[in-house]
């Protein structure tokens, strides 16, 4: 009677003939056909909450509620397949200015995506960089950034922090993305002059001020007169992207576009405020604005 390992080996060879060589899923290690693509099994790929539907034409945040401009209550935004000139801006982009031309993200920063980002960033699961970059490359192709941009530039880390971690996850994504898109990646183009504490306790204005102060372009000649694709793992308030985009534009870049694997929708950026009804509702709306959360009444 054949040993179990022999049956397994024979089955594996048969699968290699039928499906091509097998490779492990980058997330769960289940065997999948190595035919090119994001190297994720169907189950892990389907667990990713893709950023679909109506999205902000500037930062790509999904818009979950929009103001009824006729004066009625807020209504749920209808799904849309893309972003065009008639696509509304989210509240954050309506009220603020960005240095980058536009941003695109693959998925929402929740569930399986939060785990993937955390595993890459904090637990050295470096094998996740390629499948994440592959999905980012697909997003770039859909948005026209693969043809529009000349070089990819990762968001930098402070040297001391990078030395402790051992790598910069944005640089890993930028390198993998550049290989997939045949686009040169410039990991040394930007620098960060200060090692800051976590920005999570700062409001939008505070994050933006800090980011603009600490990012600079270390090699202006490498980006001058070029359209730059800025690469990072997560877009939150957009402050880091703005700080980096400002530095690149001041160094002579013609335009800066942003691509990230995930976009955080945990703040008010992706909500458009419905019309308040009465004094109590107005007070609730003011409290919500001050805390960074918009309440649906």
Features:
297 residues; alpha/beta; Rossmann fold; 2 domains; five-stranded parallel β-sheet; two-stranded antiparallel ribbon; 11 strands; 39% helix; 16% strand; globular; disordered N terminus
Explain what you see.
It is a single chain. Helix content is 39%, strand content 16%. With 297 residues, it is an alpha/beta fold. It folds into 2 domains: 43 residues, no CATH class; 170 residues, Rossmann fold (3-Layer(aba) Sandwich). Helix 11 links the parallel strand 10 and strand 11. The termini are far apart. The relative contact order is 0.15. The N terminus and C terminus are likely disordered.
Question: What pattern of helices and strands is seen along the backbone?
Answer: HEEHEEHEHHHEHHEEHEHEHEH
Classified by CATH, the class of the largest domain is Alpha Beta
pLDDT under 50 segments (min length 5)?
1-7, 66-82, 268-297
User: What is the total tally of β strands?
Assistant: 11
The CATH topology of the largest domain corresponds to: Rossmann fold
Share of helical residues: 25-40%
Strand content of the residues, in percent? Answer: 15-25%
CATH-scheme architecture of the largest domain: 3-Layer(aba) Sandwich
> Distance N terminus to C terminus?
70 Å
Widest sheet, order of strands:
5-11-10-6-7
What sort of overall outline do the alpha carbons produce when their principal axes are compared?
A: globular
